[in-house]
Design a protein that fits this description.
This protein is α+β, with helices and mostly antiparallel strands and about 220 residues long. It contains 5 helices and 7 strands; from the N terminus they run ααβαββαββαββ. It has 2 domains: about 90 residues; about 130 residues, Histidine kinase-like ATPase, C-terminal domain (Heat Shock Protein 90), CATH 3.30.565.10. The termini are far apart.
Length: about 220
């Protein structure tokens, strides 16, 4: 059995401060870099106009994604050894507002198509807001790239979880792997349709993480 022992000479405040440093200095900026690169890649799919070199954008995304994975491994290892505080920053996020931001970014360059989002106005989730927004952006981007018609995404509560459904689309394997990694990081999972008549992607996320002490469930 593996036990977690905090590093000698560190206090809870030290571990929390170190995690905040890694999050604010590495994880959050990388998430913003990935979102920016996603928006630039989507601009390349829009109507003809001035766009950046798609090959350089693809290379930048590959490099940023690799660095992001290494930073996640640093955080996972630091959490496992007790060097970093184990509790991830959490907040109550209004799902409709987060979806609106993600849809606006993904749909800004799609003049001949629409992104249709269905979500109850009161729906909320207790989660890491930065990584939740990254998951939504990745999900919508995958739908935009894989589909040649309107992209339809719905969000609702099912079985005590938040269900995100991307209708009638079969996304690429690489995008699906990234979605699964992001969902697992938030305690969730991803399911896909397996037949020609049952296409789409479902992302299940817990309303709150079981190990997040002090978080209050929805009423």
């Amino acid at each position: 059995m593996t036990t977690t022992t905090p590093a000698l000479g560190t206090t809870e405040a030290d571990r929390r401060q170190l995690r905040d440093t890694v999050t604010a200095g590495l994880a959050d900026p990388l998430a913003e870099i990935m979102r920016t690169l996603q928006r630039l890649a989507l601009a390349h799919l829009g109507p003809s106009g001035e766009t950046l070199d798609p090959h350089l954008l693809a290379r930048a995304r590959t490099l940023a994604h690799g660095l992001q994975q290494v930073v996640e491994q640093i955080i996972d290892d630091g959490t496992r050894t007790g060097t970093l505080d184990g509790r991830e920053p959490q907040a109550t996020v209004l799902v409709a507002g987060a979806l609106e931001l993600a849809a606006a970014a993904a749909g800004a360059t799609l003049r001949d198509r629409n992104i249709v989002v269905r979500c109850p106005a009161h729906a909320a989730i207790v989660t890491n807001p930065v990584r939740f927004q990254e998951l939504l952006a990745t999900l919508l981007e995958a739908g935009v790239v894989a589909s040649d018609h309107d992209v339809r995404l719905s969000a609702d509560r099912r079985r005590g979880e938040l269900l995100l459904e991307l209708d009638d689309v079969r996304i690429a394997a690489e995008a699906l792997d990234r979605l699964r990694r992001l969902a697992r990081g938030l305690g969730g999972s991803v399911q896909t349709g397996t037949t020609a008549s049952n296409t789409g992607v479902c992302v299940w996320l817990p309303q709150q993480r079981l190990d997040d002490a002090g978080a209050k469930p929805d009423a």
